[in-house]
């Protein structure tokens, strides 16, 4: 479902365009109305979640009157209305927002035509007010479900004041709802059949936030003691405190007890039963009981086996999750239980983090690019046989021998003075070093981070190692060459300079990251994994068509390093340090393989972004310093996620570079894809990315697709952690450039006027 936005602007200007393109970027559905009449008509037709009203100039229409007319309609109850107000000068006093609120507006937005500013405002509204409105709208459905639930349900406040009972509760206890709402539980008559300390036991459980369930005697309005099976669940609310208690009650007797046993057995034994068939009514449970009653010994043996299975300690985390969901289904309404069934089906799949990617309007650029990067296997031909070609086998018996590097020339020294800046121009370094930027940048960066000192190796050994690594990058590749490696090394070093990253990682992590960036594409053939698999190359056969290139990069880098003492940078560190460092390097290089892209990003968001945001919020509210980075250091798995995310972002940071660098990288990667398509056609191989035909391809479309599907979310997550606004500014600017070209139907890197 795409969020719907209504823009009410009498005339098109930069501000209305800013919100229009922000909606496009966020994937929202957007309508524009020019008059109050058309605005009201459009809203009553589509019921947009967000309305933006131009309140800067009353010459065309009165924004407050439009807001009032919309608020007078029933659907506006769950709509967020934003007023765009004019900027004020520094010497002007800011006006009160109360008149806007009284007119029905929810927020005001100070005039700012920046797409990013408009995007940020809309996204904040979505994640704040709109999501809250969704929850409020869902409440009606929730209470409808509760009203039709067969179990008696009672909801109380934290002080045990009754706030809700359903019709089943009224029927069981003999009270009317109006007699109970607002009363404390202590005011209701108690049964004398309960143990003396039962209430104390229950309170001890629920005050600690633990669920209690068991048998409890309640006194009905008529004075009868009713034996109930009760489950009381504390509900956490604002501030992490208990705000409500939900009690679910069923009549409990001997026969009912037997039914519950068999009910649980059916529930856990057969996952193929849909929940609506498990729990239509008590008649269904009776039928299960009667079927089993003829063979109690068999039933008891099977139940015993199930009990032993559930008591096993060798239990994977996903099994625990599934068991928790199974237990939650037991007393859930039918609709909730069916939804949980779908959740269980998803959890039992293997690719939990790989989304089912749809493409925008069937765009073949997006389809080809996403398909090629997210699949790692073979594409089948019409004959359903894999193609193997002897001509495409890659041999590595003739590895390059590095040339010597003399003292660094002054022009290179001067250029490298700016290497700590994100806007550092790697192509200038490529030119002045005769396509050997990796050695020179590597020496400067490694010295800055104390790599030689950590490895206890000489600068000469490090220099020789950088030379042999760079010599085994293919300068004939338009993109995957040592300039790309140097660019990724530069980005990694820049990220390591972020305060949050520095506080989260150890020196060993920094060294591992810099080495991984240096070697991450060594001996890259300028072809994708899918190409190598389709061609039946030696590498694909060696690595079983799985992460072929990434596995080769790490294996070859370590082979070259330990081959000769002259450039073995690891020769002086102890075995344990070496093993830890090696595993970290391998893990980071393998993380650059794109088929696991969404898995890495989602794990980072859930394990790093969300806990850090939560801790920052709580620390600000308590006025204390945030200890989130200290907590990250305490968990090596979190450090691993940060390192993976860091090298992934460094590897594909081209769209976040200054525009001229971004354009150059886009041209280079496109040329490499064009060359692959040419070769696939020559060799009769499946064409992995048909749209990357040099005669027909739209480079702007390919860049837009790549940014939309892979870059935006990942860099939003990385920026939320590392605080790197300069990257996001460049990304927005570059995206606008590609969008402009696409609108002009231009397929090249620049507008026709600049070509």
Automatic annotation (TrEMBL):
Amino-acid positions noted as binding AMP in the UniProt annotation, renumbered to this chain: 480-484, 521, 651, 703
Catalytic activity: 3',5'-cyclic AMP + H2O = AMP + H(+)
Residues binding Zn(2+) 2: 521
PAS domain ranges (all copies): 145-188
Positions of Zn(2+) 1 binding: 484, 520-521, 651
GO BP of this protein: cAMP catabolic process; signal transduction
Matching SUPFAM superfamilies: HD-domain/PDEase-like (SSF109604), PYP-like sensor domain (PAS domain) (SSF55785)
Limits of the PDEase domain: 404-745
Enzyme Commission (EC) number: 3.1.4.-
Note on cofactor: Binds 2 divalent metal cations per subunit. Site 1 may preferentially bind zinc ions, while site 2 has a preference for magnesium and/or manganese ions.
Top-level taxonomic group: Eukaryota
Cofactor(s) needed for function: a divalent metal cation
Keywords attached to this entry: cAMP, Hydrolase, Metal-binding, Phosphoprotein
GO MF entries: 3',5'-cyclic-AMP phosphodiesterase activity; metal ion binding
InterPro entries: HD/PDEase_dom, PAS, PAS-like_dom_sf, PDE8-like_REC_N, PDEase, PDEase_catalytic_dom, PDEase_catalytic_dom_sf, PDEase_CS
Pathway(s) where this gene product acts: Purine metabolism; 3',5'-cyclic AMP degradation; AMP from 3',5'-cyclic AMP: step 1/1
Stated role: Hydrolyzes the second messenger cAMP, which is a key regulator of many important physiological processes. May be involved in specific signaling in the thyroid gland.
Family: Belongs to the cyclic nucleotide phosphodiesterase family. PDE8 subfamily.
Protein's recorded name: Phosphodiesterase
Protein species of origin: Cuculus canorus
């Amino acid at each position: 479902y795409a969020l719907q936005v209504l823009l009410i602007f009498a005339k098109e200007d930069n501000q209305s365009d800013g919100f229009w393109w922000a909606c496009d970027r966020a994937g929202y559905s957007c309508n524009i109305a020019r008059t109050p009449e058309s605005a009201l008509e459009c809203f009553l037709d589509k019921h947009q979640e967000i309305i933006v009203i131009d309140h800067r100039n009353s010459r065309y229409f009165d924004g407050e009157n439009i807001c009032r007319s919309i608020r007078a309609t029933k659907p506006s109850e769950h709509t967020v209305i934003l007023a765009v107000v004019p900027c004020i000068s520094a010497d002007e006093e800011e006006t009160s927002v109360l008149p806007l609120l009284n007119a029905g507006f929810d927020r005001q937005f100070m005039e700012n035509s920046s797409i990013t500013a408009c995007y940020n405002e809309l996204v904040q509204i979505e994640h704040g007010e709109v999501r809250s409105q969704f929850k409020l709208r869902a409440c009606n459905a929730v209470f409808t479900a509760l009203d039709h639930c067969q179990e008696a349900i009672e909801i109380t406040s934290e002080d045990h004041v009754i706030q809700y009972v359903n019709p089943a509760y009224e029927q069981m206890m003999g009270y009317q709802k109006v007699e109970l709402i607002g009363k404390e539980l202590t005011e209701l008559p108690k049964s004398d059949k309960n143990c003396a300390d039962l209430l104390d036991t229950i309170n001890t459980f629920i005050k600690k936030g633990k669920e209690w369930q068991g048998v409890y005697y309640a006194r009905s309005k008529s004075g009868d003691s009713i034996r109930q099976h009760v489950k009381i669940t504390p509900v956490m609310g604002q501030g992490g405190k208990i705000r409500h208690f939900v009690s679910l009650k069923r009549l409990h007797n001997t026969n009912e007890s037997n039914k519950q046993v068999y009910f649980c057995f059916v529930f856990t034994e057969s996952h193929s039963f849909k929940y609506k068939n498990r729990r239509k009514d008590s008649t269904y449970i009776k039928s299960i009981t009667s079927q089993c009653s003829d063979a109690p010994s068999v039933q008891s043996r099977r139940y015993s086996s199930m009990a032993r299975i559930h008591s096993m300690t060798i239990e994977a985390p996903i099994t625990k999750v599934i068991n928790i969901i199974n237990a939650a289904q037991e007393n859930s309404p039918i609709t909730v239980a069916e939804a949980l069934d779908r959740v269980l089906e998803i959890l039992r799949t293997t690719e939990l983090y790989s989304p089912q990617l749809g493409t925008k309007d069937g765009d073949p650029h997006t389809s080809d690019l996403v398909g090629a990067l997210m699949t790692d296997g073979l594409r089948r031909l019409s004959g359903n046989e894999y193609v193997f070609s002897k001509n495409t086998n890659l041999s590595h018996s003739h590895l390059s021998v590095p040339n010597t590097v003399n003292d660094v020339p002054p022009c290179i020294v001067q250029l490298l003075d700016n290497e700590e800046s994100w806007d550092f121009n790697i192509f200038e370094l490529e030119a002045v070093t005769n396509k050997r930027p990796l050695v020179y940048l590597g020496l400067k960066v490694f010295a800055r981070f104390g790599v030689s000192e950590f490895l206890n190796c000489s600068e000469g050994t490090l220099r020789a190692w950088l030379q042999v690594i760079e010599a085994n990058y293919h300068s004939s590749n338009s993109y995957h060459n040592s300039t790309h490696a140097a660019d990724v090394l530069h980005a990694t070093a820049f990220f390591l300079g972020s305060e949050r990253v520095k506080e989260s990682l150890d020196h060993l992590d920094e060294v591992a990251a810099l080495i991984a960036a240096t070697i991450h594409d060594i001996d890259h053939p300028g072809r994708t994994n899918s190409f190598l698999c389709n061609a039946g190359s030696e590498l694909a056969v060696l690595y079983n068509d799985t992460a072929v290139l990434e596995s080769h990069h790490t294996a070859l880098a370590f082979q070259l390093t330990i081959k000769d003492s002259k450039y073995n940078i690891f020769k002086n560190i102890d075995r344990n340090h070496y093993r830890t460092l090696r595993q970290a390097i391998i893990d980071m290089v393998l993380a650059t393989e794109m088929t696991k892209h969404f898995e890495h990003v989602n794990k980072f968001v859930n394990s790093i972004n969300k806990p850090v945001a939560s801790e920052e919020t709580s620390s600000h509210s308590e006025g204390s310093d945030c200890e989130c980075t200290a907590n990250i250091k305490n968990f090596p798995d979190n450090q691993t996620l940060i390192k993976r995310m860091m090298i992934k972002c460094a590897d594909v940071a081209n769209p976040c570079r200054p525009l001229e660098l971004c354009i150059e990288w886009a041209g280079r990667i496109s040329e490499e894809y064009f060359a692959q398509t040419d070769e696939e056609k020559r060799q009769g191989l499946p064409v992995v990315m048909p749209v990357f035909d040099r005669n027909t391809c739209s480079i702007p479309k390919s860049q837009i697709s790549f940014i939309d599907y892979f870059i935006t979310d990942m860099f939003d997550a990385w920026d939320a952690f590392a605080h790197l606004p300069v990257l996001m500014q460049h990304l927005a600017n570059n995206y606008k450039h590609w969008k402009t070209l696409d609108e002009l139907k231009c397929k090249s890197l620049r507008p026709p006027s600049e070509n």
